[in-house]
Amino acid sequence: QSYKVAVVVGSLRKESVNRKAAEALTRLAPENLQFEFVEIGDLPHYDEDVEAAGAPAPWTRFREQISASDAVLFVSPEYNRSVPGALKNAIDVGSRPYGESAFAGKPTAVMSVSPGGIGGFGANHHLRQSLVFLDMPVLQQPEAYVGGGYELFGEQGAFKSDDTRKFFQGFIDAFAAWIAKTAA
Ligand code: FNR
After folding, report:
1. Region 58-67: what's the mean pLDDT?
2. Would strands 145-146 and 108-113 be described as parallel, antiparallel, or unpaired?
3. Architecture of the CATH domain 3-182
4. Which atom of ligand 1 lies closest to the CA of 114?
5. Best label site of 30, 69, 149, 155, fewest CB within 10 Å?
6. What is the pTM of this model?
7. Is the ipTM here above 0.85?
């Protein structure tokens, strides 16, 4: 069986190592996973007054893309030991209106990538906490706190180290198995 996986990258910048990591994961994934990158940079800040007046087009577009997917993969940097504001906003947008969360029940996994040694642990865990509240089954193992992010990829996003490639392979294979086990 094949599954549609929405990919949400927490960084907005063009040369993002998190985006490179997400792209690398999609290239390693088993063929039964189809990926769609769902962009978050154009989402207005969540505001209940705006919701009441009528959802802006980017909110609707984002909600529809998440709703149409079977699973969601998050790859995010850490900002100030937490999730970047743009990503938190996307989660808030997708979770509403109340009772109509686009995320509910969808299998998910989190990878965090940082140039530092802690590998975005703080962001990763804050994000996991939100995903628990959103009632998404979160892949438990392997955890993916990827440090040394600026040394991972060479030309065209090729892995510089075989150990990194193997780690990414194990992660995406585990997520594929998790989706098969938990998807609606
Ligand atoms: C950072 N960075 C960072 N790194 C980290 O490991 N822990 C942190 O708490 C922070 N805090 C932080 C705050 C802000 C506002 C910025 C802009 C950056 C550094 C961050 O990991 C680095 O810029 C990465 O390259 C960001 O990921 P992308 O954009 O390359 O995917």
Report:
1. 98
2. parallel
3. 3-Layer(aba) Sandwich (3.40)
4. 21
5. 155
6. 0.98
7. yes
